[in-house]
Amino acid sequence: MGSRQEALATDMDRQIAIMQEMREASLSLAARPLGYVDTYGCQQNESDSEKLRGMLVEMGYGITKDENAADVAILNTCAVRKKAETRVLGNVGALIHTKTANPAQIIVFCGCLAAVPETVETIRESYKHVDLVFPPSQIWRFPEFLERTKNEKKRVFIDDDESGEIHEGLPLHRDNAVRAWLPIMYGCDNYCSYCIVPYVRGRERSRDASVILDEARALVASGCKDITLLGQNVNSYVRQGDGPLVSSDFPNLIRAINEIDGEFLIRFMTSHPKDASYELFQAMAECDKAARHIHLPFQAGSNRILKAMNRGYTKESYLEKIAMAKELMPDIVLTSDVIVGFPGESEADFYDTLDLIKKADFDAMFTFIFSKRPGTPAAEFPDNISREEKQTWFEQLVDLQNEISERKHESYIGKSVRILVDGEAPGEKYPLRARTNGGRLVHLLDAPELIGQFAEATITHCNNWSLFGEVNK
Ligand code: SAM
Ligand code: SF4
Ligand code: F3S
Questions:
Q1: How far is CA 85 from CA 33, 92, 99, in A?
Q2: Percentage of residues of the chain with pLDDT beyond 90
Q3: Which atom from ligand 1 is nearest to the alpha carbon of 295?
Q4: CA-CA distance, 65 to 45, in Å (whole number)?
Q5: Contact by Cβ (8 Å): 158, 134
């Protein structure tokens, strides 16, 4: 082992030793201490919250969904839009009440907003009940930080670690045994001009293929049936280490995971259109476990705006790529993201976006109004579109997509589809949740014995967001 790797192993050993000590201390208490983790943002943050809960459990904590009962209350935050930030700051403000009721409570502010210097300053100055702040790059040192916060009895603020090291071996606490997130890479090097993610999540770095494959095998062995490979741009995955892959790319990672014995589905989020290749679609088409779904955010339909966004593709090349995917997989479910009201967007640009949506015929789409993010180039672009106009455009996009989604969903009615039953909605008329192979949400009539299993169901009706059905008898 090289000296850098030895040092990393030692650093992680230190965290493990601290977790053991904290566990002994927790077990000596009359009542088991409780940890609460509130997650905002994307799947990457959901996955990080599994690590935070895993470390808490390792330190002898129980997990609670009630912030009032928590000894440690963690907010794992998102910085992607101003709205997300406002919501987090509102909720962190409200924690003053839980802290007043229990002054020993430790309040932790982490996740992407904890890597934004302006927000950290706001927390330091105006949210004095927050005890510990650390950015995503430092998540693996949470045991050490928690111990310091407890022992030193003063507020702890941790800076970003720009070394880009990946620290393996953290315990995980997964809420759902049927579906799992599996990060394959961290960070982003794309610098889309509107996006804060590269600044808060750092440079792209890929996990060792053998670690990913071991984790996938362990998930399948534990009964997991749906694995989502995570990365801001999974197509940039670069094989690390001496794993069993013969080539160094994402399509081959899919192929290698597909070789694992067992009945399960492989999904991935997110694929950047500029790097989505014929080989990727080919790998999906040839792998029986690769779900027939691709989320391919297009962001805008105008080439002028795509250029200003620094996306690296055109409307035409985007449409060609999805045509290629549909040719190889006629049953593919296609979903996307779009931003309206980007600075300088004209009505003609907006019509290009409408046109792309009509041509692409997405099954579902997430629509966002442009939000100025500090430190990003687009935050400095002149923006002369009124909020009202952005809102009107937003509503037009949502209406158009709802119409398309509804039409697509109606085509499922009366059909029998293969589903994975993955969750419950207690008390609701349709108390079970399932997903089709293409990832569409299905509300199911009762068949609780099927949780965690694949089944065939007949779709009876739909709305523009989901399907409703019953299991075939
Ligand atoms: N890496 C993914 C990609 O490039 O497709 C996207 C990740 S981002 C967390 C999720 C979505 O948030 C983006 O696809 C984009 O539509 C939206 N988004 C990012 N920055 C935004 C901003 N400043 N304002 C509005 N929406 C934004
Ligand atoms: Fe943000 Fe672009 Fe990276 Fe996606 S690819 S995370 S939108 S910078
Ligand atoms: Fe938000 Fe960070 Fe994800 S900014 S969308 S939680 S990577």
A1: 29, 10, 21
A2: 87
A3: 5
A4: 17
A5: yes
